[in-house]
Amino acid sequence: MEDLEKPRISRLTSILTQLQSNKLLTAKMLADKYKVSVRTIYRDIRTLENSGVPIITEEGRGYSLMEGYQLPPVMFSENEANALITAEQLVIKNKDTSFVQHYSEAILKIKAILKNSQKQKSNLLTNRVYFTENYKAQTTSSYLMLLQSAITNFEILEMEYMSLENNFTKRKIEPFALYSTEGNWVLIAFCLLRKEFRAFRIDHIKKVMSTNSYFESHNMTLQDYFKMCAEKYKNTPDTPLS
């Protein structure tokens, strides 16, 4: 019986972590993830509720945790800790200074809760993992964190931009998404000047400012945007960025 309970205890702990990491989860999503039946997930949710976990059930939508509820400090397995340390070495090669700074501060807090044995191993791994990308430690931008915040808060930004053709413009934009290609970050945004979605190289943004104005979320996904671009530029494959 004890051996049978171990997988369930592990699943319950994982479900709790998933609930804290996501705004809303359905029973089917959890069932698919853990390869169990939806009925099993219903039982797991009841078990967590009976243990005092404040789970909110939204009929027809899914489950979420009560606002403000916090889990006890997270414990990492050795492989999870190693993955974080490896990711740190990749991030510090990034060309955006704001991204590097905030990730370094976050990983420092994570390292603080590692076991002493894990800390020793993480320090060893830090000196044994190296990425050759951006080996000259070039920094070309410092706006990534501000842009991420604008995307999630639907905030209109004002920016000064120098295009790849050296054309200088001032624009108001509605930030939509970010992607990285060949070491450069690209911002996808709805340009209020051109009245359409445009792609901007972040390292060509000369200045960006908050406007304290907000916009309604664009009703499309990043995949929808790429499909739209593929259709729009299918006969002009060499169309440059803005």
Structure in words:
By secondary structure, the protein is α+β, with helices and mostly antiparallel strands. The chain has 3 domains: 2-65, Arc Repressor Mutant, subunit A (Orthogonal Bundle); 78-126, no CATH class; 144-232, SH3 type barrels (Roll), CATH 2.30.30. It is 43% helix and 22% strand. The protein contains 8 helices and 7 strands. It has helices at 2-21, 27-34, 38-50, 78-91, 97-112, 116-126, 144-153, 222-232; strands at residues 55-58, 62-65, 155-162, 168-181, 184-191, 196-201, 205-214. The strands form 2 sheets. A 5-stranded antiparallel β-sheet has the order 6-5-4-3-7. Helix 2 packs across helix 3 and helix 4 packs parallel to helix 6 (116-126). The longest helix is centred in the first third of the chain and has 20 residues, at 2-21. The mean pLDDT is 85.
Q: Briefly, what is this?
A:
The protein is an alpha+beta fold and 242 residues long.
Order of helical and strand elements: HHHEEHHHHEEEEEH
Mean pLDDT over all positions:
85
Strand element count: 7
- CATH level 1 class label of the largest domain: Mainly Beta
Rg measurement, Å: 22 Å
Largest sheet: 5 strands, antiparallel
The name of the CATH topology of the largest domain is SH3 type barrels
Strand order of the largest sheet: 6-5-4-3-7
Overall domain count: 3
As a percent range, the share of strand residues is: 15-25%
| Overall outline | globular
Helix-residue proportion: 40-55%
Uncertain runs:
none
Class from secondary-structure proportions:
alpha+beta
Task: Tell me which CATH architecture of the largest domain applies here.
Answer: Roll
